[in-house]
Amino acid sequence: MPPGYWRRRKVSAYKYLGKKIPVIDAAQKVTGQTRYTDDLKLSGMLYAKVLFSPHPHARIVAIDTREAEALPGVRAVATYRNTSQVLYNSTTRFLLQDPLILTERIFDQTVRFVGDRVAAVAADSLEIAGKAIRLIKVEYELLPYYLDGEEAVQEGAYPIHPQGNLALEVVQNAGDVDKAFAEADYIFEDRYTTPPVHQAALETHTAIADFGATGKLTVISSTQNTFGQRIVLSKIFQLPMSKVRVIAPPLGGAFGGKIEAIVEPVAAALAILCHKPVKLTYNRKESMISTRTRHGSVTYLKTGVMKDGTIIAQDFKVITNTGAYAASASNVIKAMSNKVFGSYKIPNMRFIGRPVYTNLPIAGAMRGYGSPQAYFAQQCQMQKIAKALNIDPVKVQMKNLIDPDGVDPRNQKPIGNPRPKDCLRRALELKKNWPPLDDENGEYLIGEGLAIGMHGNSAYGAHTDQTSIIIKVHDDGSCILYTGTHEMGQAALTLQKQMVCEVLDLPWEMVDVVAADTDTCPWALGDFSSRGTFIGGYAAKEAAEKVKARILAEAALLMKEDQGQLVLENAAVRSWQSGRSVSLPQVMDHAQNVTHQEIMVTHTYPTPGGPGSYGAHIVRVRVERQSGVAEVTDYIAVQDLGTVVNRFSCEGQVEGAIQMGMGYALYESLNFDERGKCTNSNFRKYKIVNATQMPRIQMDFIEEYEPTGPFGAKSLSECALVPSAPAIINAVSNAIHQEIHDLPYRPAGGR
């Protein structure tokens, strides 16, 4: 194949790429055949329930489990007294290279939030386990507590952890910020806040653990990080990794909330105690109070601007509320610090980020991973700047947005092939299609808003990011793709299969996929950081290219022709020179019986870069004058994603991002009373956007080849979320003629 062949091809020339191909498990899902973790039942399986702390901060003085243990059908009761006390971090990704803060235990003598784990029971039935939990008697010594991050780091604050309440501080700089502020014509300073929110995956957290007679721990889990789970469980229980197996069936959604080890260590501890399989499934309330949330944040944003709208300096000071334990605190704040440098040509920038421990539920990963909080502040202030200078917000954006040859101001390195300006131009074209909004009675205020968003591709820059793929060719030429990628509704397995079929030119039904099993699949970092297509897809593409080369080499021996004259197409090898062809079964028969080899390839792809994906969103809202309630009526989303791999998947990801962003902007917030108890831990009180509330949506994609992506593709799903909330808030702000600094928007009782 000539150099640059793939790059020169247009999407329309591909057989599988760019098409509307249904996800590979769509039929099973809609017919109820897909078996999720909670659908599984092992022989002799027990059921678990967890006792949660009713206090925000307390030391367990005494715990009496005798009545629970005496209850017929109870097989094990786990507390801090009879389980591993190894400190760990639930988001661990590498055995030796993760510089993470270790603050967690399965059970601790100190509980640090309402919903912290106190004990767990394994019993013959869920009902018995629930009854046993209520029989456990606990005496607590109450300790000082903090719900607000800024209060928790005041001088003299009681330490939630021995090292204090500041988890860490991250500082990033470009240029001379203070000098630039002194030279600016105008200075804008604002404070913005975002709340903790729930990922709201349809499937709650669940795990089945089994500790067999061979001493091997097997965990079947709704996780999006099987290999990370294996490391955490290996460390906690002091088992070699060969004695820990983690399997992830298809997930019913995750959105980042299932990256970390949460229910898995508890199920494993109980399985080890009773030597029987144990299932632990959280209900909705338990998932909302005791798993992970998005980080709440306070952002102090200072921006220096010239009279013509040129931004010359920007300073972020961010406090994130990381809750009771470190978990993803360091990773999220570092990711946030990197992403704010990626969208604009601002020569002087500073970011200071401080994750703070409080006595709220643990904050972790959620779609966007730090970008939504930072871009909410930045994009809302961009609109304020435009208004103050009496310049069209579009002109302010276009003057400052990064160009395709743009660089990171910190190190002057290229940022891939960024196309936010193209996104904004296309969004403005689509806006011409908006129908007029009729309001004959003057009941509504109408507003429009726009926002730009950016998200990275992979964890490149933070640490090594790579994925391995195995492709095995069967006797008939069909293949199995073994991947560590997880299926959680994002269609990553489908996209990887598309790339393999494209390279090998095989019929769709001739490629099968086996995924997310640490014993049978090759290593992968996990499904987060927008890496499933960008890195997993590239690994699959290159693995398929190696398989193709092996097939052609074998066919050359069989056909006694030069390999360079052979082409693999339609499950056969054909010679350009002679016109002769052989079938794949013939090639495989030759490999087995003549050259005596199996055609199986293991390939590892470490990404050489982490470009940005970009989006421009324009929104129209109407706000009811009497109530102040806002309704999103029209929505435009244009995303820069390099190459559309699967149009069905892309459209679905954008629609889902809009739905999630609407919730973040207008409705969603985990609320807590004065003692840290969540007051809306169910879907009756925690409002998420439903189908009837969705607006008219127009979307499009900017397809400009990204050299570091597979077939030129970049990520989409997280980036599409980032501009959604600020675009909506800017529209509401324009409608009501008031600045909005806090999410979610709360109507003031009419306008």
From TrEMBL:
Entry GO MF terms: iron ion binding; oxidoreductase activity
Keywords attached to this entry: Molybdenum, Oxidoreductase
Any coiled-coil regions, as ranges: none
SMART domains from the UniProt entry: Ald_Xan_dh_C
Keyword Oxidoreductase tagged: yes
Pfam families, sorted: Ald_Xan_dh_C, MoCoBD_1, MoCoBD_2
Domain of life: Bacteria
The Aldehyde oxidase/xanthine dehydrogenase a/b hammerhead domain, residue ranges: 31-144
Keyword Protease: no
PANTHER family membership: ALDEHYDE OXIDASE 1-RELATED, XANTHINE DEHYDROGENASE
Protein name: Xanthine dehydrogenase
Organism this protein belongs to: Formimonas warabiya
